[in-house]
DNA sequence: CAAACTTAGTTGTACTGTCCAACTTACTTA
DNA sequence: TAAGTAAGTTGGACAGTACAACTAAGTTTG
């Protein structure tokens, strides 16, 4: 690369140019998008993983990885559209919650060369998923922090970052609401919080907080069970996640 | 693209391959890194911007942009190293705080083609900066939410996201401590919080919170002025940002 | 059909930390 | 010495969680 303050170099190289093809004199990294898809199944937080193919040249054949793949610049208008496409392909679901997680790029994360992945994380209800799953994907429960299979690339690191981000945000947001089916009771919502946080919460404080937030509304139905029936709620149309002013417990 | 469940397609296209050059049959997006560098100067939050060159083929010639540029796969081991390099080139400073902000990628954000940028944001003390600035860069105060110059690419959007993230985190973290010089008083720290948040804070609550956090320690010196001298503090060696269990005010 | 059991939901007291305002302290300047 | 100003403290009101005991409403069991 030329000198630091050369004129074609202004704006930090983005303006750098050969005579004709500006920027193209830099070899381009491989660019992918990966998604960490969470759900609640069997009273546990679970992630969707894909078994990798074993064609010639495929790295990490036969191992599991996060769903994702190369950005297709012909089809994907932007990164988020690419993420939504891959999500739909694997689950058949339009995610009620999709957030960018971060990006990971380095010379050695992919044996095929310098590559960068844009990671997203999605929350989907456990209920509507079972049906439309693609053939090569599978749910895995997250016990504690480790997952059962070893993951391809640096996906273990990405997954861990996603879990950490999720746990962190669950402390002070309404994100778990996106893991619930259309209708749910307050104890069910609390159980979802507890599963994600892996920690028991106070019933009365939980109810006070949820009911005073502009988040859910009761419907004219009860959940019948072997015991006292519970009031059913649904998410209000205001889909925006709620941020609470405190965490449930002082962290630490 | 081939069928959804084809075998070379497993693991979401990352395993897709021609006979020899897997992944290379996808045209690659341009890949850049941009940094939003904040400091406090003249009682205001300011951002560092770069004037773009006007060589042939340079997009947005003469306008201002965030410092950044193409990833150099020969020099940059990973994205963060690339960000640190660009930061050092423009400011001569090793940032006390650097965080990934997110990534922006689309077909039309750069006239040269499908491009994706990995954005970082950095906090540096106002003091030590003035000296080593590169020639083509300049500080701009953020008044309210709009910046003075129109920015190249989608950098206005990225900058806005950075400000939002910073303001958000300042509500419940110790991030402003990274904007302070080595030694500072509690009222000075509070003023920094207030500048970033653009809102007055309660003195006693602020002091209680800062002093009970494991964040700063008093040194055997006072800041002398026209009035009562103030105790000087410094950051503890534990560089990790502190997360508080509450925000200062209930948002809204 | 009443008693035992289980989960839903409420109530009340203690405690923690912010909010608000008044106060004391320490220094400079008139 | 008095006035002024910013640093730092103190105390009461208030909000929301922590903890624990309570009531409510259904099912199952004897």
Topology of helices and strands:
Two copies of one chain form a homodimer.
Chain A: E1 30-41, E2 44-51, E3 64-65, E4 68-70, H1 79-91, E5 97-106, E6 115-123, E7 137-141, H2 155-170, E8 184-185, H3 186-197, H4 203-212, E9 216-223, E10 230-235
Parallel strand pairs in A: 1-6
Antiparallel strand pairs in A: 1-2, 1-4, 2-3, 2-7, 5-6, 8-10, 9-10
Chain A binds a DNA duplex (30 and 30 nucleotides) through residues 185-187, 202-205, 207-209, 212, 224-231, 245-246, 248-250.
The helix-and-strand class of chain A reads alpha+beta
Termini gap of chain A: 47 Å
Poorly predicted parts of chain A: 1-22
Radius of gyration of chain A: 22 Å
The chain pair with the largest interface is: A-B, 83 and 84 residues
CATH superfamily of the largest domain in chain A: Nucleoside Triphosphate Pyrophosphohydrolase
Note the overall shape of chain A: elongated
> Helical stretch count of chain A?
4
Mean pLDDT value of chain A: 85
Strand and helix order of chain A = EEEEHEEEHEHHEE
Proportion in β-strands of chain A:
25-35%
Quaternary form = homodimer
Walk me through what this model shows.
Two copies of one chain form a homodimer. Chain A has helices spanning 79-91, 155-170, 186-197, 203-212, and strands spanning 30-41, 44-51, 64-65, 68-70, 97-106, 115-123, 137-141, 184-185, 216-223, 230-235. By secondary structure, chain A is of the alpha+beta class. The first copy, chain A, folds into two domains: 30-169, Nucleoside Triphosphate Pyrophosphohydrolase (Alpha-Beta Complex); 174-235, Arc Repressor Mutant, subunit A (Orthogonal Bundle), CATH 1.10.10.10. In chain A, the strands form two sheets. In chain A, strands 1, 2, 3, 4, 5, 6 and 7 form a seven-stranded mixed β-sheet that branches. In chain A, strands 8-10-9 form a three-stranded antiparallel β-sheet. In chain A, a hairpin with a 2-residue loop joins strand 1 and strand 2 (44-51). Residues 1-22 of chain A have low confidence and may be disordered. The first copy, chain A, binds a DNA duplex (30 and 30 nucleotides) through residues 185-187, 202-205, 207-209, 212, 224-231, 245-246, 248-250.
């Amino acid at each position: 690369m030329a000198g630091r303050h050369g004129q074609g170099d202004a704006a930090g190289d983005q303006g750098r140019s050969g005579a004709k093809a500006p920027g193209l004199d830099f070899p381009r990294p491989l660019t992918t998008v990966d998604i960490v898809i969470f759900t609640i199944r069997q009273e546990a937080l679970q992630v969707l993983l894909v078994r990798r193919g074993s064609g010639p040249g495929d790295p990490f054949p036969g191992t599991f990885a996060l769903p994702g793949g190369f950005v297709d610049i012909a089809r994907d208008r932007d990164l988020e559209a690419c993420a939504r496409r891959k999500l739909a392909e694997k689950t058949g679901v339009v995610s009620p919650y999709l957030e960018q997680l971060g990006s990971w790029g380095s010379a050695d994360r992919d044996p095929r060369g310098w590559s960068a992945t844009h990671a997203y994380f999605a929350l989907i209800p456990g209920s509507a998923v079972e049906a439309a799953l693609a053939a090569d994907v599978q749910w895995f429960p997250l016990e504690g922090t480790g997952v059962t299979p070893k993951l391809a690339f640096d996906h273990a690191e990405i997954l861990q970052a996603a879990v950490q981000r999720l746990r962190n945000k669950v402390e002070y947001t309404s994100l778990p609401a996106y893991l619930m089916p259309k209708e749910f009771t307050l104890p069910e919502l609390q159980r979802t919080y507890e599963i994600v946080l892996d920690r028991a919460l106070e019933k009365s404080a939980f109810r006070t907080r949820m009911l005073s937030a502009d988040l859910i509304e009761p419907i004219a139905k009860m959940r019948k069970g072997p015991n006292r029936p519970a009031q059913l709620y649904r998410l209000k149309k205001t889909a925006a996640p709620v941020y609470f002013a405190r965490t449930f417990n002082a962290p630490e």
